[in-house]
Amino acid sequence: xxxxxxxxxxxxxxxxxxxxxxxxxxxxxxxxxxxxxxxxxxxxxxxxxxxxxxxxxxxxxxxxxxxxxxxxxxxxxxxxxxxxxxxxxxxxxxxxxxxxxxxxxxxxxxxxxxxxxxxxxxx
Length: 123
Hints:
The protein has a single domain, classed as Hypothetical protein (Archaeosine Trna-guanine Transglycosylase, Chain: A, domain 4, Roll). It has three helices and six strands; from the N terminus they run E-H-E-E-E-H-H-E-E. The protein has helices spanning 9-17, 62-69, 77-83, and strands at 2-7, 22-25, 36-41, 47-60, 90-105, 119-122. It has a six-stranded mixed beta sheet with strand order 2-5-4-3-1-6. Strand 3 (36-41) and strand 4 (47-60) form a beta hairpin. The mean pLDDT is 96.
């Protein structure tokens, strides 16, 4: 099973250049068996630009997540803690085997009418 993740273009591109090896989320998918994530780069790109296999998923207090992942966060400490402000726990989705698409894919070609706010399941 796969999920489609909406990610801001600046962060999505960092996943594929290797500088961002963790995708941070306040909430994630709950279904078991999710092995891959398609990356939808939000506006102005508005396309699926690649995919990656989900490595481990860390769940902890933001301070602990930062301590464990900061070397491969792809974002500043300030950005990280701003994102997790008012959150007692968070997730860090490990990225492995990333594939950047030479030709981005439209949501319409995947029979998806609008991008997900955070994520959506794909069968």
